[in-house]
What does this fold into?
Amino acid sequence: MFAALRAAIGAAGGALDFAAFMQFALYAPGLGYYSAGAHKIGPGGDFTTAPEISPLFGRCIARQCREVLAVTGGNILEFGAGTGALAATILETLAALDALPERYEILEVSADLRARQQQRLGALAPALAARVGWIERLPETPLSGVLLANEVLDALPCERFVVRAGSARRLGVALAGAQGAASDAASGAAVGALREVELGDAPALPADLDVAALPEGYRGEYRPLLAPWIAALGATLGHGAALLCDYGLPRAALYHPDRRDGTLRCHFRHRVHDDPLVHVGLQDITAWVDFTAVAEAAVDAGLEVAGFTTQAALLLALGIERDVATTTPESARLARAAEARRLLMPAEMGETFKAIALTRGLEQPLSGFALQDLRRQL
Ligand SMILES: C[S@@+](CC[C@H](N)C(=O)[O-])C[C@H]1O[C@@H](n2cnc3c(N)ncnc32)[C@H](O)[C@@H]1O
It folds into this structure.
């Protein structure tokens, strides 16, 4: 990993901007965190996600899918399906409701996770497994139905900036001098071999971000790749809804002067820290999502922002409490209740995680967003 990273830094003239470094650390073929064999998601991995915590999440999302599919027909396309847990629950729930889509397509950039998905979803009942397929790139003909992405936006590479004398300086990654050749054989990662550098004025910041209002030394992140990603998604969605769930905030809250260290976090064996320059290729790197940027890109792509709410409000509106209450036997119900608390409680995932619905040609409101409408904050 480190030799390839050193070569990439050299080829870039001595420093990579942070987004290029993150792209490398997460997605370099055969080496990056998502490309290589690290266990990643769930117990025994580095982090967990809502579909891994409980099938309650997928059951709720399945009911939202059913409502949309009843109008649009067509298929479900999931981006970045992780271990396949969400897909499995959605297919089983829709089968029980006699509302299966023709196809459940998955677009996954990680060969390793794709193999795990194939194993997991291949073990479903044959009538369900037969509907699942993997695609390499977005279809050229717009589709009808539902697009899903849980915790995918936060995995798109971000740039980092630091405020110096009222202007934003772009941060990058370089080799740490003579130590640059050293690598820590025990962890497999280069430790102390990389350093952060400032690369000049940060380009392409959100246009309405008032950098002058931020304190000296403030650090933040932004994603130049987000708008093109949403534009591509918009071009794919002919009729239906895209449901994107992730941790994040509207822009004004995300870049609040009090949040002076930004939101970039690394996940390594269920420990969270803020140093992306260690364990390169062995740890996840993420940053919170600017949901105002998502909404702006969606509008530019001709989509309607049909809803924005917290994960708790989404799941409550989609009947999570009924799911728990009707679980039998009692021991299973208690376990589900504990899972629901993790998904719903503000101190856990309930408030930090948000859901945004982007639609095209869909008249009726979406049930998942009926309880709470936070769109005015975007
Ligand atoms: C944090 S994991 C979330 C996995 C899963 N959705 C879940 O909730 O458990 C991020 C996922 O997004 C995938 N991914 C990252 N960038 C992607 C992209 N541009 N297109 C599709 N998948 C992507 C990763 O390989 C991984 O499967």
The longest strand covers residues 237-249. The longest helix spans residues 55-72. Residues 34, 41, 49, 51-52, 79-82, 86, 107-110, 113, 150-152, 155 surround S-adenosylmethionine (CB under 6 Å). The radius of gyration is 21 Å.
